[in-house]
Structure formats: C-alpha cells, structure tokens
Design brief:
By secondary structure, this protein is α/β, with parallel strands linked by helices. Helix content is 47%, strand content 8%. It is built from 26 helices and 13 strands.
Length: 647
C-alpha cells in the first residue's frame, strides 16, 4: 500500500489535496542533497584555482552555482531546519542546539519532536515519493517516512564506553527501527580510524590515533568528525543504491568541525611558539578536509543517472586563517565560536534540469526547499516564503498549486523515545566546539530575536517579556526587550529596562547600544555617541555600534588619544596585539614596553599587557597590569571583571 494511502487512513482530510495536486506528470526526477556544513566559498575558489578540487570545478562548469546567503544566528540546527522546511525559524521553532527539560531544568539537544512544521521528507513521503535522510540536524527521534531515516544521533554513541547506543540502545535512532542492523557494518568508530587514514589530514605519531576519546583532546574530536563523515558517506551511498529513493539528503559535519578545530591555521603565516607547533601538526587539516569533500562530491556524481539532480550546499562560510584575539582559546580545546562563521555559504546544482554555467541570483535559505520540490516535480506551498531558483534550472515554471503542507499534525509521525541517555555527552561536545556558552542566546531568545528581525514587534516583545519574567536578573534579556520597546516607541519603559540591564550585565554591549539608539531617536545625539562608544569599550568589534558611529561620521574609538605620544602608543599596542595573536608573546611585550614609555597613562596599554602576561602564564604580572589599568579608568567594568577572575 502506498505510504500516503496508509497515512490517509487516519488523516485523509488533511492529506488528500497533497496527493491530488502535489505531483506532476513528468518522468521521475530524483534529487540528491549533499549538505557540507561550513564550507567557505572563497577557500573553494582558491583551491579550485590551484587545481585541487576537480569535482567542484566540474559542477561550476557544467552546472549552476551561487553563494547561499545565510541568516543570523548562524547556528547549525536552526539553519539546516530552515533549509529542510523552507520556513523561517519563528515558524519551525528550532531556535538553538538545546532546549530545557521542563521536568528537570536540564539542557537537552533539540529533537525532531520540537519542529513546528513539516520537512521535505514529510512532504515527499506524503506524495508517495521515497526518501533517505542521513545525519540531518534535529532528526532524532527518527520520524516515520516513506523510506529510511538515519537520525543525527546515529553516531553520537561513539562518545560512550558501553552506554546508550554503543551498548545497543538504538531507541529512535533510525526508521525503520531495525534499519541499524543492516547499517552497522558501515558505521565507523573513532577508535577504528587508523594512523594511515588520519595522516592524510594531520601529522601525529603512530600511536596517537589509538588513544581513547577525551573531550580535551583535539585529535580525538577530529577522529570523531572524520568517523562520522565516513559513516554518513557510506550510509548515503548504500541507501541510494539499495533503496533508490526519490530524495536523498546526506549531512556531513566534518567540514565545519575541522574548521572549528584548526581553521585558524589555514594558510596562516608567521606563527610563533605554540601556534607554530599547532600548525606543524594540524596546519593541513582544513585543506585536506576540503579535498575529502571534493572526493565525496565525485562519488555521488558517479552514482547519478540521467534522472538525477545533485544539489551541494553549505549553511554558511568560515573565516579561515583568522587568529582569535585571545590565542589561549586555541589551547587544549581548540575551538572558536560561531562569530567566525561567514554569512555566505555555497549552492551548487548539477545534473538533470540544471543549466550549464548557470548562476543563482543571491539565493537565501528559504529558497532551497521550494527549489528542491520544483525540481522533483512537486509544487512548493504558497506559505513557503522562498522562491524557486529558476535561473539555474531548465524546468517548467508553474503556479503553486498547494496552499500549505501543514495540517494533520499527527502526520509528522515521530518514532517513540523520550529523553535520550546520550544527551549529556552531546551537550559536552557542543560546548567543546564553542557552540554553547557563547555570544548567541539560546532557544526562545533566538526565536524572539528572529521575530524582531521580521518586524513582528508585538510578538517579539511578548516573547522577551516572558523571558524577563522567568529570569528577572538576566541583563541580556532586558537589553533585548528594551530594543524591541524602543522600536515600538516605548522609550521611557525601554530606558528603565536598560538601566537595570547595564547594572546586571555591565559587559553586555547590547545594553549600551540600545540606550544609544533610543537617545538618538529622542534627539540627544551627544549622549547617544557616548553610549555607542561605551558599547565598543567592552566589545570593540560590536558591529551595530560601529555602523551607527560610521553613519554619524564619528570616530568609533572610545579611547581618544590627546597627543602624538598617545597616538603612537595606540599603534604600538595594536601591533602588540597582532604579534601576540601569532604566538610571539615576547615580541608583544617589547612593543608594549615601548608603548608604555610613550604613554604611561594610557589604560589600553596595561590591558594588553595583562592579556599577554596571562597567555604567558604569568598571572601575577597580569593582575598588576589590570590594577594599573583600573587606577587610570576606575569605572571600567571589563578590567574589574578580569581582575576578579584572576583572583
């Protein structure tokens, strides 16, 4: 019995329209979607220009290409769910990596049951088209589909010694439930990755790959990423060859994980000390992972027949070769936060119906799902905000025949399975990769911010009020609420929240920025400028305040040197910062000595000296420098907070 007929036994009212008008009468059109997390378009262009990525080059010549424009916050579960549903986060309700278990108060990774709308695999299944989904974000527990689903928890059991799925608990891991039995031989364990395999990417001793997994071990994390990529690659090939689905979606995280681990080393020059040693061991890892991705693309190109379209995309790009301001962030757990993500990812199309040398015109995330539906001969729904990227395809342009694929909520059937025993370890891995406890707010706060970005101020304000009510001492939530209230014209109430926000969280630049915006709207330009500068005092790279001051034609520095000595000292301090980022701490100290001789009362010099001393492991020297900086700027909350952290 066809899948949609089985579902219609319970949901015939909601689904009958889809079955009648969703399919076209064209010959079968199959789609492979290869998701390569975090692939940076400029790095691909560089490697292609050097002749290193022949399969990407072939897609560029014989298919269509464009830079896929992502959206903030650039967090994988949000973005990949947007891609899979064609709906914005405020609708699909996946807002971060984690949510809160209301019974225990613990953080848990997001699950498929939290998604508020249908994904492509649901729509295809209900149209009697077969699907295979491998490793896609937020797909655990695996849903009931017409075909196979291998959830994103399939490889998480590697993090356990004899626990969870590693000990045979496959609850909700795959659909059908017994699918894992046939897939088991394809699943690679990190402990099984040989030195010969790993030496293609990193330069390590022969005995190192055999060491057990430890969260503080960068090589262990890379083995995890590589083993997972190999597993999902093999499973994707198997499902395509054995089940012949109409839609195959395979997600590969390794390209992004490797960049988080070692992206600061990519083609970096002039590294010294510990960074030079990192580069010796791991400097080729990102480049080799990109070449691995190219080989993976080539494998799926070989699997295609004349009825197949291959779509290769990334959810965002990555600032490769960018050294963090604080080199200590690359120690032990060599991670950087999502602030190193770029908004532009990649979108390639190749095969049936694709225009040779086609170019996509600034595609965005919500364009992907409608395009996949149209390529497969299905109608995008009218409530999908994205467009079909016809400029890259030779396919008929049709009116959207389906109002919505929503309704009959039970049709998005999820496999049974409550809280996962693997959750604590997954959370620890996400934290190790820099995704938790970073600048991005979590869950409902992200969704509230997205409502604000969409201009849905009343809904956003309601969401932020609920957050503030739940956590009155959360200064960041109050600052965000004030921003919404300011946009609604409720200036006095907004300023009240901002006063409390900056008291609770004096290092949060959003509070000062939002106060500046309101003061500017009230015509108090000079006070606004001071608040923009105050935001930059604690976060020099805070883009909203930088843009605001540039618009006003104002110097963005909150440190206004008064004489030539101060100006020269500032230049030397910035040079010291660059030198320290390369790992040359001794050279940085020499520059700071010279800067202090020119401007002993410039607090920034002492702040930088504290930073470098901390990197050198000299905490007493760091404390002394911060005390001197506080003597000069006693109201500086950053100096005071850092001194408290140093004891």
């Amino acid at each position: 019995m066809p899948f949609s007929a089985r579902v219609r036994r319970r949901h015939w009212v909601a689904l009958s329209l889809i079955a009648l008008v969703g399919c076209s009468s064209d010959s079968r059109s199959k789609v492979i979607v290869l998701a390569l997390d975090g692939m940076e378009p400029t790095a691909i262009d560089l490697l292609m220009s050097e002749g290193h990525m022949p399969n990407f080059a072939r897609m560029r010549q014989e298919g269509a290409y464009g830079k896929l424009i992502s959206s903030k916050p650039i967090l994988s579960p949000i973005i990949w769910t947007t891609i899979a549903t064609g709906r914005n986060p405020a609708d699909h309700r996946i807002g971060h990596f984690v949510t809160i278990n209301e019974k225990t108060g613990e953080q848990l990774p997001v699950t498929s049951q939290m998604r508020g709308v249908k994904a492509l695999w649901n729509v295809f299944s209900e149209a009697d088209k077969k699907v295979g989904v491998v490793g896609w974000w937020a797909t655990w527990p695996a849903e009931t589909v017409n075909g196979a689903m291998v959830s994103d928890h399939t490889c998480y059991h590697f993090l356990f010694d004899g626990g969870a799925a590693g000990a045979g608990d496959w609850t909700g891991i795959t659909y059908p439930a017994d699918l894992h039995e046939s897939l088991a031989p394809m699943i690679r364990r990190p402990a099984g990755i040989s030195h010969e395999e790993i030496s293609r990417f990193v330069q390590v001793e022969a005995n190192e790959p055999a060491q057990p997994f430890r969260f503080e071990d960068d090589l262990a994390h890379f083995k995890w990423a590589y083993a997972t990529a190999e597993s999902y690659r093999a499973i994707g090939r198997h499902l395509w060859q054995e089940q012949n689905p109409d839609l195959l979606m395979v997600y590969i995280e390794g390209t992004d994980s490797t960049s988080h681990l070692f992206g600061h080393l990519f083609r970096a020059e002039g590294l010294v000390g510990e960074l030079a040693e990192q580069q010796r061991r791991y400097g080729d890892a990102v480049e080799q992972m990109y070449l691995y991705a190219d080989r993976l693309v080539g494998e799926f190109m070989e699997l295609m027949d004349d009825d197949t379209t291959l779509i290769v995309l990334s959810d965002h790009g990555f600032q490769l070769g960018a050294l963090p301001d604080d080199p200590s962030k690359t120690r032990d757990l060599r991670r950087v936060s999502e602030k190193f993500h770029n908004l532009e990812g990649i979108l390639y199309a190749y095969g049936k119906g694709v225009k040779a040398r086609g170019r996509f015109d600034r595609p965005v995330l919500v364009d992907v799902a409608p395009t996949i539906l149209a390529v497969a001969g299905l109608s995008p729904a009218r409530d999908m905000p994205g467009r079909v990227l016809y400029e890259g395809f030779d396919i008929p342009q049709r009116e959207r025949e389906v109002a919505s694929y929503e309704g009959g909520k039970d049709a998005v059937a999820a496999a049974q399975g409550g809280d996962a025993a693997v959750d604590p370890a997954i959370l620890e891995r996400l934290r190790a990769l820099g995704y938790l406890d970073t600048e991005s707010p979590t869950g409902d706060r992200n969704l509230a911010a997205l409502l604000f970005q969409e201009g849905r101020y009343e809904e956003s304000a309601k969401a932020y009020r609920e957050l503030v009510a739940a956590a009155p001492d959360d200064g960041a939530a109050r600052a965000s609420l004030a921003g919404v209230l300011g946009a609604m014209g409720a200036y006095d109430e907004a300023l009240q929240h901002l006063d409390e926000a900056t008291r609770l969280a004096p290092l949060n630049p959003e509070g000062y920025h939002n106060r500046a915006v309101i003061l500017e709207k009230k015509g108090e330009r000079e006070r606004a400028v001071e608040q923009y500068r105050e935001a930059l005092r604690y976060s020099p790279a805070y883009e909203p305040s930088l843009r605001a001051l540039a618009r006003l034609g104002i110097d963005s520095s909150h440190r206004r040197p008064v004489g030539e000595g101060d100006r020269k000292a500032l230049e030397l301090a910035e040079q010291a910062s660059v030198v320290a980022r390369r790992g040359d701490y001794g050279g940085a100290m020499k520059l700071l000595d010279e800067a202090e001789g020119l401007a002993p009362e410039l607090a920034l010099v002492h702040q930088y000296r504290a930073n470098v001393a901390f990197l050198m492991g000299d905490k007493e020297r760091a404390r002394a420098a911060l005390r001197r900086a506080l003597e000069i700027e006693p109201d500086n909350a950053l100096y005071r907070t850092n001194l408290e952290k140093l004891g």
